[in-house]
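Dissemination and training. As part of the outreach component of the grant, students in the summer workshop were shown how a complex can be specified as a set of sequence lines and then modelled as a single object. The example used during the hands-on session is reproduced here so that future cohorts can follow it. Participants entered these lines:
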Amino acid sequence: MKKCLRMITPVVIVMGGLVTIGSQAASVSANTSAPKQTIRWWVMVQSQKPAFDQIAKDFMKTHPNIIVDDELQGSPNYYTQLQTVIEGGGGPDVFWMNGPNVDSYISKGLLMPLNVSLNWKNYPDSLVRLYSLNGVHYGVPKDFDTIGLFYNKALFRTAHVPYPTNSWTWNTLRTYAKKLTVPGKQWGFQAMSEYSGTQQLFYPFMIQSGADIISHDKKSTDVGSEKAVKAVQFLYNMMYVDKSSPDGNYLNDNDPDQLFQSGKVAMMYEGDWESKPFYDSLGSKVGVVELPKGPQIGNIIHGVGWVVNAHTQNKDAAMEFAQYLGSKQAALIQAETGTVIPAYKGTQNKWANSLPGLDLQVFLDETKFATPYPTATNPQWEDIIVSELTNIWLKKETVSSGMKNAQQKIDRFLQSGN
Amino acid sequence: MDKVSMISTTNRTELEFPNAPREKKGGLRSDIVWGYFFIGPVCLGLLVFYIAPIFYSMYLSLTSWDGSSVIRFIGLQNFTNLIQDPQFLQSLRITFIYSIGTVPISIVLAIVIAVLLNTKMRARIVYRTIYFLPSVTMTVAIAVVWRWMFNADSGVVNYLLSIIHIHGPQWLTDPNVILFAIMIVSIWGSVGYNMVILLAGLQGIPTTYYEASAIDGAGFVRQFFSLTLPLLSPAIFFVLVTSVISSLQVFDTIYIMIPSNSGGESVLADATRTVVYSIYQNGFQWFKFGYASAQAWILFIIILAITLVQLRLQKKWVHYE
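and obtained this result:
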């Protein structure tokens, strides 16, 4: 008996490894459907929760027969979990969606075409397009974000260099970055932003260089094209030729936003969502201007959208609520939190004035020439770019061969119909 | 130990139920019914959360499934693809390097520390606690602190190396070094747990053996090799088997030690992708559940084989009293 136990224990431990994968798959069949007329609303970001509570409360006042139950989701695997529960027939009725994932959700039939009466001209056109396919609307634009060039005024003053302006070009950026660099102590720029920096740095650069990133039919990419390579090469040169940016090793070891906040880096590209954190840590030292211009003018606009579960049991109530989320009233409530730019036109002023001394209007002006965040039916293509960029920054591949590899892999990936 | 406890249980039963109607027909049957009733919930849980998923993953390993579309049965295709998949073969290689690099060092260190802490030294409880602390600390917290210590420019590791005039490597951003950095963290994290088990084993060795051998003139070293090690071998065997299994299944340390946002297919990911990490990527990042399940089964078979070999070999070196 004792010997038998000795045999069994390791076997059971071994089996444990298999369980993880099987149980995840099994949970797909677990069904949890909401009771009638109660809408489950999945939201994200703790700091915005008070606004959501208020929106739900206001909605229930005018719709006494509907209960809105908002649930804060904080998992980094939100989009994976969401997909799993919806496929199992459960999950929320109305929920938070982002650009990189929306196409994948639409193509898998997880989102219900919206049946709401909203004037779509009330939102930035690029956002409306981000959440629609072939003229069918799937999402109500919630908020939007664009990218700006943040700079540390104190470091500019010390170096006796004038502050950046809205008329800067790539070349001015490069020249001034060199002037602001103190070897071993401080860098003028950093060729990296938070969360791998694709949205804030690499895509704007590639788009300004004339690349589309993802083709109109979403079947191919041009990240290996001459134009895109030129953009990445520009950043690479700042890193390894001018040494006005920390190198790849350093940028993988350290947090980009923290480098800027601690005054080690004078300029960086970031999204408007970092305005408040930067303002909180740097105070009046932080400034922001429009992105320097390359061969073309350009920026990336992205925004969160509210979407409806394709398998919802409360279709009418969910649509009613989605429509309310697209209202001016709901936008104004969000503007008051000061954390996001509401998508509804004419409600952004409150946000733009929320940080005295910091010209947030820049982000609103940027929408005029902003391109929607590049998306494809499977968000996994972005991981290929991020991986290749890491290899390039770590000098394991040259810029052109790395980006060509990325293009080949992404093309194969997009065309395989994944 | 086992005999003693068995005897005492029997005695207790007889003491408490001296006239228990065990021979009655109906009584025996209701005993069985109640028995099933009590183990029922556990069995049900085991069935739902362990047995069923295991068989489900076996089924999935023979299919192609992305989690949403129709499950397509493709026979052994996943397995034939795996044998030719350089990424998977590389992940096997990395897993073995990791195991070979961590398990022996961890166990040797654990034995040495356990023996030292088994002596009558001052404040040994404090030391035991310190060594055991990593086992009760969250992996995430461990990784955050180690990432900070391994920072090439501001980390304490490279600072200490610079004192003795060694230019420290780029611990976490050099693909040739990152796996070793992770192995160091793993060894540090597992020594304490192994030490506690070995310490328990050491305390089961009667002191009379040591007294007798001391009279025969054996010194500390001789005692260690001729007495301690053989008598500790059952505990060492247990530690070895569990360490090998857990090292072949390593995932969490790697998941949080590699630089965030460096991409799932970068040189850093390629240098640290163990089999379970590969299972995670295929299953939950790339939604290839069939392919991931097939990898899980290959890993299971490998672990089972290694464990069986260890069980067979134990006769040669494990001494049960």
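Chain B touches chain A through 54 residues (CB under 8 Å). Students were then asked to discuss how this feature might be tested experimentally.
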